[in-house]
Design a protein that fits this description.
Structural class: alpha/beta
Strand order of the largest sheet: 4-3-1-5-6
Helix content: 40-55%
Radius of gyration: 21 Å
Oligomer: single chain
Distance between the termini: 59 Å
Number of helices: 11
Number of strands: 7
Largest sheet: 5 strands, mixed
Length: 243
């Protein structure tokens, strides 16, 4: 896409996040405003020259309000968006460092993605979450091995397919919600989607998953783990009962 070619990766992430902070404003609309003021090519240095007045005037023009007074966004939201464009605003509270992982570190483990909008929680819809928290999970251990931004999906022609590609090495994805067409693309990517509308902390989600691994793995989980892992899980469950 032309827009992707004209915007550096870091600038694209900032623009996508800034658009999310502006009520009733789409990503294409914000890009139009930025390119009208700054030119077609956008990078992080150029974005730092953009002001709240520029944003107010630009969005007002798109809405037919030249003075920008009645566009229904609010000054505080516009200030936050400009801070994000400048790189001076954090999108979320500090996230933990990911841990190193090599194949085989956690025997009989699977890779689980969690759609998140807020910190270390399951809080995101598949088609709009900010990031995926990626865990390697066995019946007795788990490790956070990745925090993958999903903002670049906003620039993709097929946003849901792009998101599935981001977690293409995962076996399972937990989401608060997902539409039918998106779910089909997840399944075609050989990822098993699990809806948990109530959300919860990542710790809670992983603990629930481990409980299923230990006690009564469903058929799809056994298929992922393989025959040897199936027997080991049964043995583990039997040991737990005896104790």
């Amino acid at each position: 896409m032309q827009q992707t070619e004209l915007i550096t990766r870091e600038a694209a992430l900032r623009v996508a996040l800034a658009a999310r902070s502006l009520p009733n404003t789409t990503l294409p609309q914000l890009i139009d405003v930025l390119q009208e003021k700054l030119g077609e090519k956008l990078d992080t240095e150029i974005l730092r020259t953009f002001t709240v007045t520029d944003l107010k005037t630009g969005l007002g023009s798109l809405d037919g309000e030249e003075d920008g007074e009645d566009i229904g966004i609010g000054l505080e939201a516009m200030k936050l968006a400009v801070r994000i464009l400048w790189g001076d605003a954090e999108a979320d509270e500090e996230l933990p460092d990911v841990l190193p992982y090599n194949d085989g570190d956690l025997p009989d483990s699977v890779r689980v993605a969690i759609a998140s909008d807020i910190g270390m929680t399951l809080s995101g819809h598949f088609g709009s979450c900010l990031r995926f928290l990626v865990y390697q999970v066995s019946a007795t251990d788990s490790r956070l091995i990745g925090i993958r931004s999903a903002l670049e999906a906003d620039f993709a022609e097929d946003k849901n397919a792009f998101r599935a590609q981001i977690i293409g090495d995962c076996h399972v994805v937990y989401i608060v919600s997902v539409g039918g067409p998106a779910a089909a693309k997840i399944i075609r990517a050989n990822i098993y989607p699990i809806k948990r509308p109530e959300g919860g902390t990542a710790e809670e989600v992983i603990a629930q998953f481990q409980q299923a691994m230990s006690n009564s793995p469903p058929p799809w989980m056994l298929k992922i783990l393989g025959v040897n892992a199936e027997q080991r899980l049964k043995n583990y469950a039997a040991t737990e009962v005896q104790e």
